[in-house]
């Protein structure tokens, strides 16, 4: 379990600058919220659930493609269980193929059989033993090309250079929150780390991540609190260690971001352990 919601992507094979894997969210479970620089393309292979993208909830089911745009804080939850493939292509791969994905806003939900078939082809290429690298690179490019041609729009607002500077400044504030979320923090303190004025920072933060600063801080704190409680920490002590002094307020916030009160979460964990389920 992660205390930070930020993911750093390390691509071990420079010829395959992609992260590709399967994920399963069990019944009545939710993955940790996270965010990263590269866009993420999910393909649901079984079940149904919700893609939580910023403050937007998207219902996804078998055959759907869900896209998480750059820097958007996100998670996946399910009441019935869901399995999906996850592709995260490095921005550099898109650039070297003439696709400036940083200037594009991709649709969050795609229901298109041709697009789904392109994703299945990618899955097949990863399993191939002959010319796997060439096959995967071709399949990823075909998938991305189809998406940007049919399901993208040019981003409005500042130019790329200005957006990158804004994102870098916001990353300073996020790093500050990652290091200090256990303490009492004010919006003014957080904004100061970005070098922006308070109200400009608040507006730009939500544009970049899809959520407010307060929501981000609560997600960060609840991720850590969930980790502590799962290890047997007393609820009140977990709350204090995550910057919450009021138990009632902590319980309310915890339920908002995990779907359960701390007490319900503990009972759920005990039930999972009794049934031999770990997640």
- Count every beta strand, where a strand is a DSSP E run of 2 or more residues: 10
Which regions have little confidence, pLDDT < 50, spanning 5+ residues? none
Indicate the radius of gyration in whole angstroms. Answer: 20 Å
The major pleated sheet works out as:
8 strands, antiparallel
Give the strand content.
Answer: 15-25%
- In helices, the fraction of residues equals 40-55%
What is the count of DSSP helices, taking H or I runs of 4+ residues? 10
Order of SSEs: EEEEEEEHEEHHEHHHHHHH
Category by helix and strand content: alpha+beta
Report the end-to-end length measured between terminal Cα atoms: 10 Å
Q: If you average the pLDDT, what whole number results?
A: 91
Describe the global form.
Answer: globular
What does this structure look like?
The longest helix is centred in the middle third of the chain and has 21 residues, at 160-180. The protein has helices at 91-96, 113-127, 132-150, 160-180, 187-194, 198-209, 213-230, 235-241, 247-258, 262-274; strands at 18-25, 29-30, 40-53, 56-61, 65-68, 74-78, 82-89, 104-106, 109-110, 152-154. The mean pLDDT is 91. Helices cover 47% and strands 20% of the residues. The strands form two sheets. Strands 1, 2, 3, 4, 5, 6, 7 and 9 form an eight-stranded antiparallel β-sheet that branches. The protein has a two-stranded antiparallel ribbon with strand order 8-10.
């Amino acid at each position: 379990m992660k205390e930070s919601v930020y993911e750093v992507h390390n691509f071990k094979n420079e010829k395959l600058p992609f992260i590709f894997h399967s994920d399963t969210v069990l019944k009545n479970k939710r993955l940790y919220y996270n965010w990263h620089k590269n866009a993420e393309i999910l393909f649901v292979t079984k079940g149904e659930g919700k893609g939580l993208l910023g403050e937007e909830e998207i219902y996804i089911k078998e055959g759907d493609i869900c896209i998480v745009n750059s820097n958007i804080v996100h998670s996946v939850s399910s009441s019935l269980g869901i399995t999906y493939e996850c592709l995260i292509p490095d921005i550099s791969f898109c650039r070297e193929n003439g696709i400036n994905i940083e200037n594009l806003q991709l649709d969050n939900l795609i229901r298109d059989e041709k697009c789904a078939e392109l994703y299945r082809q990618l899955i097949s290429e990863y399993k191939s033993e002959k010319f796997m690298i060439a096959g995967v690179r071709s399949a990823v490019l075909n998938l991305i090309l189809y998406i940007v041609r049919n399901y993208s729009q040019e981003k409005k607002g500042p130019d790329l250079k200005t957006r990158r500077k804004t994102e870098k400044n916001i990353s300073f504030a996020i790093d500050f929150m990652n290091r200090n979320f256990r303490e009492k923090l004010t919006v003014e303190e957080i904004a100061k780390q970005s070098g922006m004025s308070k109200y400009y920072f608040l507006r730009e933060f939500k544009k970049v991540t899809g959520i407010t600063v307060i929501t981000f801080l609560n997600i960060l704190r609840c991720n850590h609190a969930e980790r502590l409680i799962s290890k047997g920490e007393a609820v009140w002590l977990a709350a204090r260690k995550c910057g919450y002094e009021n138990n009632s307020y902590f319980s309310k916030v915890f339920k908002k971001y995990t779907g359960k009160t701390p007490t319900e979460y503990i009972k759920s964990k005990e039930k999972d352990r009794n049934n031999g389920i770990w997640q």
